[in-house]
Structure of Bifunctional protein PaaZ:
Amino acid sequence: MFQEIFYEDYQVGDSRTTLGRTITEADIVLHAGQTGDFFPHHMDAQWCETQDFGQRIVHGTLTFSVGVGLTAVVVNPHGMSYGYDRLRFIKPVFIGDTLHTVVTISEKKDHKKRDNVGIVTEHLDVQNQHGETVLVCDHLLIVSKKAIQNG
Amino acid sequence: MFQEIFYEDYQVGDSRTTLGRTITEADIVLHAGQTGDFFPHHMDAQWCETQDFGQRIVHGTLTFSVGVGLTAVVVNPHGMSYGYDRLRFIKPVFIGDTLHTVVTISEKKDHKKRDNVGIVTEHLDVQNQHGETVLVCDHLLIVSKKAIQNG
Amino acid sequence: MFQEIFYEDYQVGDSRTTLGRTITEADIVLHAGQTGDFFPHHMDAQWCETQDFGQRIVHGTLTFSVGVGLTAVVVNPHGMSYGYDRLRFIKPVFIGDTLHTVVTISEKKDHKKRDNVGIVTEHLDVQNQHGETVLVCDHLLIVSKKAIQNG
Amino acid sequence: MFQEIFYEDYQVGDSRTTLGRTITEADIVLHAGQTGDFFPHHMDAQWCETQDFGQRIVHGTLTFSVGVGLTAVVVNPHGMSYGYDRLRFIKPVFIGDTLHTVVTISEKKDHKKRDNVGIVTEHLDVQNQHGETVLVCDHLLIVSKKAIQNG
Amino acid sequence: MFQEIFYEDYQVGDSRTTLGRTITEADIVLHAGQTGDFFPHHMDAQWCETQDFGQRIVHGTLTFSVGVGLTAVVVNPHGMSYGYDRLRFIKPVFIGDTLHTVVTISEKKDHKKRDNVGIVTEHLDVQNQHGETVLVCDHLLIVSKKAIQNG
Amino acid sequence: MFQEIFYEDYQVGDSRTTLGRTITEADIVLHAGQTGDFFPHHMDAQWCETQDFGQRIVHGTLTFSVGVGLTAVVVNPHGMSYGYDRLRFIKPVFIGDTLHTVVTISEKKDHKKRDNVGIVTEHLDVQNQHGETVLVCDHLLIVSKKAIQNG
């Protein structure tokens, strides 16, 4: 599970698909409990029936957390999560939907101030069981360069 | 808890501070369980002692989820979460840290394609008990306009 | 969320209705885990089928805890929970029921020993999605008096 | 675990002591998550340091739920929980306190309308590790009468 | 709940049946979270539909933990769990199945090195709502002998 | 994470070490909640202080579940868990201990009745942060044979 991957090893365009994960009613209950977000959109089935979406929808922060969590398979001691850009909620996620994430290396660039690292962007495309994208975001990683490492 | 707030009601520069929330060891355990991210940075106290940060650190997705969750106090039927920009992990969060979020309306702009809504940006500044910023992000909301609503 | 409310501010007859909350199977599982009450009425669907109520019923302590929790919206630094009277289980609550609480100020009276506080009674009427009362109780609050506070 | 106990079998004055249970930080986190009560008294260690009690205190509904749960050892098919009277929070409960409950049969009386059952009152005295009472309440049970049962 | 049972008190062939417990979707979610086992057999409903078993199956370690937990009713200060032999997964357990355990004293034998204790084997037969065995194991207990205790 | 491994691919003596995992107080609370085992050995810090081990100890089923869960990294579609032999609790596990598992292929043998599969034994040695073994067991896997697969 530990695997050393340097900046030079990342190839723009490389892609992998994670395992899938069904989002359950229990996940919503636990996430509301963890975040304190008890908005009726997530917690009140009766009210949701009166809304356009018709049923409880999964918290955006839960879809994001699970979508990201699914990618956490290999520990790379040379990389560090730096942040996320352009996180967008594309489609609602419902109880019983099964999510997986397609991870694509979408960009590599030098770090403005530090020679020994670069910034790698992973594009995350979280999809449901119908192959529809429900959430996208760009994950920014600061990764050590091999050359400098050895230098 | 339901409160009607239209696009016109948001004032750039307006700011509010949420309640605080102490992040516990239990929160990390539950978040690992929810996301499947069992990286040793969060789950292995023994290994963490050998690292620079010296102790378990809170998942970035947990800090984000709690930081956002703290703002979920008023349900505005005229607003909808659209996404997040420039999410950055500024400082590590440790077990026992108490977080609160400062929410500031940082921008308002028209929607490119739809006349009846605008885009409101809330800047979220999640701070620890020392007043240090640990995470920032820009929350994008699509909000109905009053005029159109009545027109 | 912090709001200063003195004894004098409470008006007998004032009423508010909370948000709703759907009670899920996960809530029963978590509450059994929290309380250690694994009685078959809550945990054994097979046995419940042989009983009058025909299906698993929600723990009384869970209905009470959620019914009370729904009211916890505003922190009043001048009030303190003192206890509950006449807590009654009126109807069984089943998995999937959506509860909300109607809170009514039902009584105000002086404290027998302390001049600077009074006792405010909130009547809690927890109802399901059919508008049926499932639990009632009287919540007793000790609240500071304004006059004394300033005196 | 199933044990048949009729109204006539209860003896006023009979008493039993439950097992003990340490209330952990995890219990507070889970109970906040279950009830939606994220008041700073329970969740914000930093704020609590500025208050009289100096540290996070356990939710009243949690102390009650655990205090009652500890008594749920024997399933009596002839008894049914009817409600609670005079529930009082006597002393604050802190993280790490170990609670047990002393259950005493305090009253028996006929049911006003139904001949075949009686009302048994169990007085619950929830105590901490110092033998101090932290919560009391009277648990009301409706219990079938043996005579009628056989008649 | 505390009950003193010595080695001599156990009778080979004695049997008891525990309460039942319905295994819920929430239990799987919590167990995955506790163990880190997010295999698609348990977590991915979409993938499971393509497999022979057709639906999510319960973790073997969960069936075992619940099957054993159901037996934990009486604390015997003279016994200590030593291990398990011949743990076998006989049939898959699905969400919604209700399990109970039949415990039979299957063997008693002296301890090879210590005179004052013996080894008692409890055979655990975990069954579903159809009376089908889903898991078996032999639980080994080291139990104090009465004679030596008094000697 | 899916990786095809046939019976012929397993080599007796091959060994791997899992990531580590710190067992927290929250894990005990959740496991008690999941199993219903609220024995004072795990839940009552006050009582534990009066016992030889002096502090709360982790449920055996939790140590087992986590020790096994740590090994669940690669999904092998050709293998199926069959059971466990010689599961032994060697040393108590305490809150805060960090566990990892050393997995060694200890035996391979033909299946008595089925030509197309064999039985592979993985010996699991669960160790704490001091390198002390706390639990051992032999995990039995039924694994498809390559030859037959192709034949």
